[in-house]
Design brief:
Elements (H helix, E strand, L loop, with lengths): L21 H23 L11 H25 L8 H20 L11 H5 L15 H25 L4 H20 L11 E2 L3 E2 L2 E2 L3 H26 L2 H18 L4 H27 L1 E2 L6 H14 L5 H20 L4 H15 L3 H13 L1
Antiparallel strand pairs: 1-4, 2-3
Length: about 375
Amino acid sequence: MNTVTTMKPAIQLPGKTPLLSGRGWTAWLSALIVLCALVPLLNLVIPAGSVFHMSDFAVGLIAKIMCYAICALAMDLIWGYTGILSLGHGLFFALGGYAMGMYLMRQIGLDGNYKSELPDFMVFLDWKALPWHWFFSGSFLATLILVVVVPGVVALVFGYFAFRSRIKGVYFSIITQALTFAAMLLFFRNETGFGGNNGFTDFKRILNIPIATPNMRMTLFVLTSLTLLLFFLLGRWLVGSKYGRVLRAIRDAETRVMFSGYSPLGYKLSIWVLSAMMCGVAGALYVPQVGIINPSEMSPANSIEIAIWAAVGGRATLIGPILGAFIVNGAKSWLTVTYPEFWLYFLGALFIGVTLYLPDGVVGLVKKLKGGRA
């Protein structure tokens, strides 16, 4: 009796070969850990008169760039690995920053210029009570929850309708940019209760501890560096799993993924919401270290810069966007002081040059140079 054996064809999820091998991941991760550990050492242990001493300004600058690096890492998860180019991630960064800023404004209390429990700008505008959306701003625990929940909910609602309608490509990018611009105009209005165009500033304390002290500055730096490392390891775990392989398959051939029995909606929506939450955490860490948050953080230009950081460092590498954030913002800090009129020209030329000659970014260039030597 002849028997016919039917075998189900194996489905291979499409995806590009990763730029980094296991040894490459370990090397870049070790370099990142060394940087995070070396900065406190150079600031606290090395005497101020030494050439190796790192000033408080430099510590604050590196911490600020680390916040940007978290945003670039979030962008890499949705753009580099999923193929979704967002030009509105500055909105999620600002929402997390505003959630933390509202708590810091409540911490000022009677130390403000108007000696009132209300924030100074509310007293100036003759407000009699806090609006409803400030209800949880007096609790640090509630603030930590809102830092994650608010950007996540906004991303969930927007992403569900966008992905369900199968909006993709340049159309999705334009819609995200329009959403960010609309939110910026909303936050500029004084009646919304977010400080208008001035935003929030003049913070005094966090958890009743003075915020403008070297110890608090170093504490915030350590928290930022640990958060960056945690998100990097989380991203490494995600992209190395089956979930990450499906994301790369959606990026390369979404239609084939659907025919293979996978629903792209759940994967795209989940990584989109996670990316927004990461930006919200970055914004919450950014505000107490910089000392100000205003609607300009929602400007479309800021969201475009996040995409530039990911492109310069190298998409779909995780470490590349972090490296790109340090390269671009380091150059920005130097050029805006020495040659401020050339910064925007440099940024545009950098993006064009990377697009034309370095499609895999700096990480891809390093790999090519190592392969050439081999």
